[in-house]
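Model the whole thing, not chain by chain.
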Amino acid sequence: MNYLKNVLLIIITIAFTCPITFAQEDSVMIRTIFDKALNEGKAYEALTELCKDIGGRLSGSQEADQAVIWGKEKLETFGLAPVYLQEVMVPKWTRGEREVAYYTVKGSKKPSDLAVCALGGSVSTGKKGIMAEVVEVKSLTELKELGEDKIKGKIVFYNRPMRATLISTFRAYGGAVGQRVNGAKEASKYGAIAVVVRSMSLKIDNEPHTGVMRYGDAETKIPAAAVSTLGAENLSKALKANPNLKMHLRMTCKNHEDVLSHNVIGEIKGSEYPDKYIVIGAHLDSWDLGEGAHDDGAGIVHVAEAARLLIAAGYQPKHTIRVVFYMNEENGLAGGKKYAEEASNKNEKHLVAIESDSGGFTPRGFGADAPKEFVEMLQGHAALFEDYGLNYFGKGYGGADIGPLKEKMETPLIGYIPDSQRYFDYHHARTDVLEMVNERELAMGAASIAALVYLLDKYEAQ
Amino acid sequence: MNYLKNVLLIIITIAFTCPITFAQEDSVMIRTIFDKALNEGKAYEALTELCKDIGGRLSGSQEADQAVIWGKEKLETFGLAPVYLQEVMVPKWTRGEREVAYYTVKGSKKPSDLAVCALGGSVSTGKKGIMAEVVEVKSLTELKELGEDKIKGKIVFYNRPMRATLISTFRAYGGAVGQRVNGAKEASKYGAIAVVVRSMSLKIDNEPHTGVMRYGDAETKIPAAAVSTLGAENLSKALKANPNLKMHLRMTCKNHEDVLSHNVIGEIKGSEYPDKYIVIGAHLDSWDLGEGAHDDGAGIVHVAEAARLLIAAGYQPKHTIRVVFYMNEENGLAGGKKYAEEASNKNEKHLVAIESDSGGFTPRGFGADAPKEFVEMLQGHAALFEDYGLNYFGKGYGGADIGPLKEKMETPLIGYIPDSQRYFDYHHARTDVLEMVNERELAMGAASIAALVYLLDKYEAQ
């Protein structure tokens, strides 16, 4: 930490003593980066390949393997060298046949379909599926209050919506996702036979949104599904009218043995400090339902294009810029853990790790998960981004994949922040496809990251 | 102007002397407004009606008449009183049959289709259409250089793209739209028999974007069409290979006599100064190709919902809030001119006029077309919007419909500024439909406008 403190002092000193001449040179470089991104950018074309030639790429799938090959070739084409793979064992889970769910009301002939999908990591219901009464709850607390008496043998329906009034939809997600991750584990303690969770989306439509769930120390593993927000609204209404309605759920998903996969790593070697790293990364895996366009294909092409833009702008970094495509963010984080472990074992100096995993929308800024001095250093660069519409530079979340770097080596983390309003409309759903990504918004994200890397490389510690 | 200056002094004094207690009350009110917009907003539902029950509503069309009736009912339902219509004569132009265009290369059997649409106000080609060689130019200057010798008897193809490197796409539009508006008039001077203009869009796709064109003092009125950006790229390439290719264009559009239409006006009466007005407006007409969802259905529901939100939040304005749905912004501005004329004739005091005509995207701020002191007053309110992601408060463009108010009565103008990256993808094209509008982004726009109106009403002059 003493080293880091000295480093930060130097940064701050530089940032405050030489702002004028540097700032002019910097604004020219940043303009060049944005011009190249907007006039002759390659991010959207790369994303098109990833989405349309490969598509959804869940860890352990054939598509994930294809994405690794694609990623390596793409970084090579973009001029990075060397480009290499880092082995990592990842969980493998398969969805099986398309899920089926409906509810029936006594006396009514026609069952009402529910749009559901299995949550990642869930066990199967068995081929015949299950049929049971449903108990609706809004929270884990409510579950506890109901107790075994009211829950045993039933399906627990978690129906707490994301809070629409939070301007950052990521905060709204954070406040609701606990039901999805831990809902099955908790409900199983009271004898529930399955759980159905309202999709993590603020949009009322009929798309179920998958995502990871964990059994943790649960004694009994019960099936867990997501239901579309519209389905959740309908089911809730139906339960008010008929508390004894029965729901059928059928899912044939399955957990397999771990399999070998890879992180993809590419470098632009630093001219002065080749063994000090600035890492920019995103996750190459995605859920299986859509094309993983915003989550996190956008991030992948952001960081690859950011490196390409620096090369195209003729910038020779002092430190080594390392682009990392992490595998398995969605259901295990094995890639992020493995990268940090190896970096730590080799005692590699990581000046900063940046992640893009919030979609390909209009850039709004960067948030740092780092000591106060580092956050202030980041804020010191804000003025250069004003013309490009980035206004937030301050404390923030780094990213899941880079989290282990902070844990292991106290690496300062920076998360790229795009506009968040539309993100959860598509997140983990069938609708997360290329068509929902705007080419300019994507290009501006890549340029923003490239510009930040340029500044950090130039003014960061030696 | 002396009155206005005094007024501004008072505003500035208030803004700087009583910020603390007022600011707390203000932040609570603004939070209430946003909560209501995001939890129980009615903007998206209203836009759905306007887009799906009515659709495109070009001035003088049956749909425009329906929109007037809808608008009056909507403002009444939203609690405004009185709500009334203001008569205005508007131009009427009809598109006729679907336009046809293709080019043929000598020796090649198959003609190549071009996706075109007539520009608003254009004359017809006649039912048989026209066939002629094509001259590509990038600017009006280039046209002049070519002269009659190279242009006479040909179709002029204006192919200057919008500048992708401008972060504000409105600036990029402003730099390219001259070809569309004046291209026919200018080309006719050199004997051109028609013009085809590259669509005003930064996206390369096959959708032609219509928009107004004007003949001005042209002696000969020649047909004017827009070609999709993809069509423009293809035609340009084909011309390089075969400068003598011939293009066929067929349009049966027509200008008619002016017809009677209406502005729709609704009020929330001021409790202290009922005869002083804060105007919030948008235009009710749209082009005919899409549903006029972003242009300017979003603006219409923004301002209607802003008024409703103020009522729902229990705010009793001191000045009269007047919501105006202007007719005929797209091809004449008759509604905006008429409103200003009547306001001027009645010597109505207009404190400020606000317009939303930049789409239903995430709010970024407000720009004022007004004296420096007014701009500074606006900037003084910026801090209250930070939590909602609005960062730009400064000089800017007001709006087309409210422009005449400034001309006639020196009314300070404010334009609502949402994120601009996607706007021209849809603008004036078949793709400007409800599905391209995000409910949260729309709701936040309405809340932003309501919040600003609240602040202006509270701190504005008496």
